[in-house]
């Protein structure tokens, strides 16, 4: 078991396998895209598998694959299959925009992927286009329904944005009436690749919940330990919904997560900077034991919460890097 300096058990790794993406979501990237990392600077699949094996031996039992868009990286499916077989890894989850996922669904079911978080910010084709700047709604919509019928647990991620998709909150809640799906409303964060691009008015958790409660009869659900969302359901609806206080950061107290960026940099908090580069360590010949020691040192200096992590940042590095570079 690995504990951080605040006594929190760390058992969840978020692994961003690429920073490349085929969408340009307003809250994540500028229209012109971001400067992508050279392919040779990305962690290779072999390097990722080595790190996961090393971390799993120390107590990491869950991995979330994210990016960028995981399914734009070549050979992702054989990699996922190997990942599900790593000793000690009990859950492999994926976050995807759903534009390229559908052809692999059967393979993902067969290899035992535990859950898929599908990012979908609107159920309206036009609003989807305005947010993602790509006309690809129909594929994602089809993926959503195929996922809900599959054996893979499905969650929907919707970033709540003033003036962009508030109308959709109600439609997503209505989706939970007939489908056993968990919709998660996410507070927008400043990680959009452009200083000042975000919305003027943030919708914090309280406002999102108040908005829902004004229209539906809401019941609180019990949150699992280290859950990123505060969870609820509408009375007699099949599915549930959650709110992720990603910006107001009221969930840091039992955070069990670490992140590896596509370049192999370890982030012990989403709001912090990279603390060690495991890719460089591996390419310079470090042993597994040295990797574990470096991980433990980093976790011994972990910020208490996202506010402390943000304060510790080098002030020259703006907090507007894209989520695709960090790994959402
Ligand atoms: N491309 C995949 C996708 O969109 O699901 C995986 C990577 S994406 C960076 C991971 C998650 O981060 C998505 O659910 C996305 O909505 C969320 N995200 C990206 N930028 C964000 C921001 N500025 N604030 C809040 N959530 C954000
Ligand atoms: Fe791409 Fe995901 Fe970022 Fe949208 S949120 S631009 S789909 S990485």
Strand order of the largest sheet: 9-10-11-8-7-6-5-4-3-12-13-14
Q: Please, what is the CATH homologous superfamily?
A: Aldolase class I
Mean pLDDT across all amino acids? 95
Bound molecule kinds, no repeats: S-adenosylmethionine, iron/sulfur cluster
Helix percentage: 25-40%
Q: Report on the biggest sheet.
A: 12 strands, mixed
Q: Indicate the proportion of strand residues.
A: 15-25%
- Uncertain ranges: none
Total beta strand runs:
14
Report the C-alpha radius of gyration, rounded.
Answer: 19 Å
The level 1 CATH classification is Alpha Beta
CATH architecture: Alpha-Beta Barrel
Number of distinct helices: 11
**What's the N-to-C terminus distance?**
24 Å
User: Tell me, what's the shape?
Assistant: globular
Helix and strand string, N-terminal first?
A: EEEHEHEHEHHEHEHEEEEEEHHHH
> What is CATH's topology name?
TIM Barrel
Query: How many domains make up the coordinates?
Result: 1
Class from secondary-structure proportions: alpha/beta
Write a compact overview of the structure shown.
This protein is α/β, with parallel strands linked by helices and about 325 residues long.
Give the secondary structure arrangement, pairings included.
Elements: E1 2-3, E2 9-10, E3 12-16, H1 45-58, E4 62-66, H2 76-84, E5 91-96, H3 105-110, E6 115-119, H4 125-132, H5 137-149, E7 153-160, H6 166-178, E8 182-187, H7 205-213, E9 218-220, E10 230-234, E11 240-244, E12 257-260, E13 265-267, E14 276-277, H8 278-283, H9 288-299, H10 306-312, H11 323-326
